[in-house]
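Thread title: Can someone regenerate the structure for this chain?

I was given the following input by a collaborator and told the matching structure tokens would be attached. They weren't. Posting the sequence so someone can regenerate them.
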Amino acid sequence: MKVISLIHISTPQSFDNCMLMLRSARVGFPDSEIEVSINPTPALAGYCHILRELTDLKGIKLTWNMEVVHHAEWIKDRVEEHDGALVIVDPDVHFWKSVENWKFSSLLAGYLIPELWNDATQCRSVSRLHTSLLWINDTVALRAKIKELYPLCHDQRAAPFCPCDPYTPAVKFFQGEPIFWDTCAQLYHMVGGTHFSKEHWDCYDHLSSASFYDLINEYLGKNENPLWTWTHTEGAKNLEVLRRLSWPMTEAYIAEKVAQGKSIKRKILDV
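Best answer:
Regenerated them for you:
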């Protein structure tokens, strides 16, 4: 099994929150091969030595991307090049217990994000398994399943007319309504997957969007939400307190957005 993570630091202020996975990596995966890829951003200036020290200390392979790579493209490339079990982990995930011996019978496993209203895209999102901790049991079998489900995308004659990208996010319209397919949503709807249970949640926490905290604040005005602000500031510094609040806050937020999405859907159907 190989564990991988893409670190993207948008501002110096987000550096510590994007180090949670690195600092707790050997709690979650004591003996697994771990590789961390770094996007080259200006915010990394002055922090490179910390990355090297952390990865050396924990026996983690560190690679530097030549240019900034989109998360979805990076996942696609890793799935294509690796043979075997692959676990994708966001940098703002903190592990409380080992997850190394988790077993799943499905090709994919992860935290289920149901169909809901998406504030960022201002439309409904289809359901998916969140890529903050996405378990791929066997990349060889996954690639074969994708080819089996839609062989035309692997046919050189048909591929230009039948594009099929299970990884890249996109907004697509259906009967006049924009629908957001987030990263790997298409993949989930192709092959399905196992949904993490509360027993799984107990092993880790996820800050969510630490790499783009400043951009989300500016774009969505999240700094007006005291819980969001606390999670990424005081909460990230008091992980034991965050541990008690993280999943209840996440579940409450998702329930609110599911209800909002259903309301929007009803309005569209009534038109």
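The longest strand covers residues 2-7.
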